[in-house]
Amino acid sequence: MKLDLSGLQSFPSIPGGAVDDLGEDLFAPPSFQLPACSDVPDSRASMGGYISSQSVKKIIEINPYMLGTMAGGAADCQFWHRNLGIKCRLHELANKRRISVTGASKLLANILYSYRGMGLSVGTMIAGWDEKGPGLYYVDSEGGRLKGTRFSVGSGSPYAYGVLDSGYRFDMPVEEAAELARRAIYHATFRDGASGGVASVYHVGPDGWKKLSGDDVGELHYKYYPVAPTPVEQEMTDAPAA
In what side-by-side order are the strands of the sheet with 123-130? Predict the structure, then answer.
């Protein structure tokens, strides 16, 4: 399988055409301007039925304006996101401009497709902001690549999708979108044994990504489902101290 690395070549080595195979405009003026999208993962890692960690970082910063999420094998996701970050930097140095979200997602899909059938387990979202605006892509270890406005990936995704689909609007302000994503992650962790820990909220805008919050899902439970005291508990609370 031949790997498509044409997006890493410099301008003179690509004959003809205004757009390369990664969707990059080759003859646009160089730009280093960071030309807003929300990402929310949990932080639990499991080994079968065993919870191996509650503090895994499931959002990986590819560069200052692009993020990747982890679902599947932790080692596979971490390695290939680091690899993608290196190739994105090489593209920037060769072409004097940052790679687009479209180009980065296609590059990752091409790499993973070349290892198809070799046991990789990767399900990721590539979210970022480039000169054309926000971009969000789903990429998996089979080389699949989808563009969309919202995705949920991993074992808890069926539970998160119910919340996302019912509450999503195209014109949502940042805080409302972050709260919707946070609530979706909570409901996934409430029903899925492989999801849990901390719900971290990131926002990607024209000035790059920014972490908005990190909330323990145990505390979110009492936020979304406050526990009312029983009559006996209320009487004990109201009783004067002896």
Answer: 59-63, 66-69, 123-130, 133-140, 145-147
Cβ(31)–Cβ(65) below 8 Å: no
Cβ-Cβ contacts under 8 Å for 40 (sequence gap 6 or more): 178, 181, 182, 184, 185, 199, 200, 201, 202
d(C-alpha 189, C-alpha 170), whole Å: 25
Q: Tens digit of pLDDT for each residue in 70-100? A: 999 889 999 999 999 999 999 999 999 999 9
Query: What domains can be seen in the chain, in order of their start residue?
Result: 37-225 (3.60.20.10)
Long-range CB pairs of 168-173 (<8 Å, 24+ gap) are: none
Distance from chain centroid for Cα 17: 32
Residues 29 and 149: their CA atoms lie apart, in Å, by 28
CA gap 184, 165 in Å, rounded: 10
Average pLDDT per consecutive 10 residues, the chain (242 residues; last block may be shorter): 44 44 50 48 73 79 93 91 95 94 96 94 94 94 94 91 92 93 91 86 92 88 81 74 58
Hey, how many other C-beta atoms are within 10 angstroms of the C-beta on 6? 14
